[in-house]
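User: These chains co-purify. Model them together.
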Amino acid sequence: MQKIINDPKNFIDEMIEGILEAHSDHIRCIKGDLRCIARSDEKKPGKVGLSTGGGSGHLPLFLGYVGKGMLDACAVGNVFASPSAEQMFELTKAIDSGSGVLYIYGNYSGDIINFDMAAEMADLEGIKVEQVVAADDVASSPKGAENKRRGVAGIFYVYKIAGAYAEEMASLDEVKRMAEKVCANVRTMGVGLSPCIIPEVGKPTFEMKEGEMEIGIGIHGEAGIGKGRLETADMIVKKIMKSILEDLPYRSGDEVSVLVNGLGATPMEELYVVYRKVAQILKAEGIKIYHPYLGEFATSMEMAGMSISLLRLDDELKKLLQKPARTPFFDQIQLK
Amino acid sequence: MQKIINDPKNFIDEMIEGILEAHSDHIRCIKGDLRCIARSDEKKPGKVGLSTGGGSGHLPLFLGYVGKGMLDACAVGNVFASPSAEQMFELTKAIDSGSGVLYIYGNYSGDIINFDMAAEMADLEGIKVEQVVAADDVASSPKGAENKRRGVAGIFYVYKIAGAYAEEMASLDEVKRMAEKVCANVRTMGVGLSPCIIPEVGKPTFEMKEGEMEIGIGIHGEAGIGKGRLETADMIVKKIMKSILEDLPYRSGDEVSVLVNGLGATPMEELYVVYRKVAQILKAEGIKIYHPYLGEFATSMEMAGMSISLLRLDDELKKLLQKPARTPFFDQIQLK
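Assistant: Joint model of the two components:
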């Protein structure tokens, strides 16, 4: 496999060592456990703690968003595998400052089981914990069964907006309400043009022929919900946008933020070709774009492909999206 | 080819349309020519203009660094092909505010010929132009023949530091001196783990077998200066660092900024495994790291691989590196 790694068994620990070496001004590990990452600055008394967790292989997800204005902690699993409940619980204790902790994570059974256990452990210690599960991938389950959908790139918006709100000293219930509001207004869909290779496995996660694409791809190296002939960028965008727009639905007069997310190997050049068509479609629909994000926000290692997310904004969401953030993988100054 | 594009002939124009759509707060095109990109804010009377140019396929290079604190303009060519002298000249006129214009670009014959012609055209119009050519790739030519080296990711530092100095209203001669000082103190070397595909060509730029790597890779889809067996990350870093450290040479007591640059398809996870070893080696050598940059700064479309750049700092370079910048592809707040 064409990867710049050492022993695959050490891949994640060595990656985290590199991240801590580069970003010790932002983050540190708790109790010497490389898989327990928290903000390195002093915790603010009374601030609600925001914690996440999930498998590795998705950088900047998940740990890349730990920092000022976003998350307080992240439990880090092996490639595409959940971290443990104990690690989540250690972080909960580390970041709680008396006002409780909100877990925000993607809709995957391993993560749900472990975060549920961590919440029970926290409860026994008298730490109030609430949970919000992101499930933004419209391709993974039909309308009406939204709770079965996967969480993908749209979780970036949940971190950003809930993080900004917690920074303003909102209560646990309020931060939870806001995180749920983001979840209710964000939709994502993607396509994959290549599989990826899990280092410890050593072979591609699925078979793919030249000239094909996987439609409705997730971020765990799995095949999409359907295979199709690789189409032009404009056709791909048209189909994705149709699914997303009809799902919420997004309507004329709405204002949205757009996230065009690269899954790993797809160059920025192609993401902008995609964005060009996204903007054309939204204009034709009478939907206003507020602030587009383009780049790699939630990846599947070296998978080629991309996803499009829309977040419908109102005044409250927009004001929080505009707030500054400063993390190892995402910096934003106050937006206008 | 597994690309999300429309007609390959329109690839670059459509990409630029997407970029202008997304980043009109930063950049605009001059005289309706999509290949002539300049800052969208008013030019500051007396500020030296900084212009660059080069082929496409390298995002964020080149046009991604046009913005406050970095470049004023960029002429955009087709994939891996120089833009025209006329385009460079149009931009020169657009950004000159009476104090002259500095061209900063990579050491490629097509770009040199065209920038030389543009400089002559500017001279006839009474615009003072100076040129600085980046040639940081130690693998491409031996010590003693530095002027034959390719310009690769290290040019990022030239843009950043010269851009900050121009923003401080330094004179053309002074900005040129500073850009040359960066060039004199930056060295880069990279490896490639896959070729890439130029859309209009449709097939890989070179042959590569599983388990091989190209050593001393550039950013134009060309093969490296040597083929080798793909080694571990630590071994690759050791070899690259040896070549870079001996070349300047960098010595115990020096302070450097490090840039670990992904060439396109290599995930961030691997870049941090690389950085871990870079930091270990520099510590062992007694060289202090000031501020590492990791990510995609100069790519070769969807090529897998990475490069390492070191910039030796002194007080003057460090102070300018710390200054804020705000461009479509690179944001930095004032560093400490």
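The first helix of chain B runs from residue 11 to 22.
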